[in-house]
Amino acid sequence: MNKDAARTLTRQHFGRTIGLYTPLYISNYCDNHCVYCGFHSQREIKRKKLSSAEIEKECQILHASGIQNILILTGESRLHSPVSYIKEAVEIAKKYFPNIALEVYPLETEEYHELFLAGVDGITLYQETYDQAIYQKLHLAGEKKNFTFRYEAPFRMAQAGIRHITLGILLGLADWEKDIQALFVHLKKLWKTYPGVEYALSFPRLQKIEPDHSSSFPVSDADLLNIIVTARSLFPRVGINLSTRESAALRDSLFEFGVTRMSAGSSTVVGGYAGPEEAEGQFPVCDRRSLKEIKEMLRQKGYDPVITDWRRITNESI
Fold first, then answer.
1. Is the pTM higher than 0.85?
2. CA distances from 159 to 116, 202, 298, 317 (A)
């Protein structure tokens, strides 16, 4: 499928709309040693975990900006970010936002269900790479070394009642063509088992963090466009996210060929909205435009920026 056909297919199923959300980092403590990540346990960075009052302040600032969809993120540390802490953050956030998603370490089914009942609507989890040999070389310590537990996590999410699940890989860690094929197989298995869930895909590209680590599998702008177009052709009704790891110019040129959601006004720093940004972010944000600026860009291109298409309901056990 060419990009024009992908654009037509996207408009057929999603209209001329782009959903907007903002990430909220509440802790950067991590127990894993993943050589490519800005938060890994061996990296000497300033660690921070937001208090309840600080989480509330961040939520108030984001709410005032007009955003209504947030993605709450932590480093992968059960010690510093136990499920009880994540649940507390969700309880605070739902006072301000009708749609709350998480990006945290893999959990057990009952833990996902506990967070679902607390008000979580969606969860994002990256397998990072499906090449198990490379996966073990990149993940030197911590629970993340367990490839299978991570791979099976989206099935546990769906079983727990989570309505929206986003899968993804970090492009550049391994042969991206093989990784994309494996990602699509993973999604098809999920869809076959849990067809009632709303699924999305995300394809962030690796950004160099460590001075001795660089990608041996570069992914060009043209490759990224091809990945988005292919995903749209194979999965006409699946959402596709576009990361602020990409530049404003590239995001503006790619979004209409399959993308359905974009982050806006993003910070990857813990407490980055109340500021000042004293800690290091998980990765540098390349598109630093505000929510207002992203909305204006979309309108100028004839698209409708969607702040929320959710109405707050109480999540209950079936």
1. yes
2. 11, 22, 36, 11
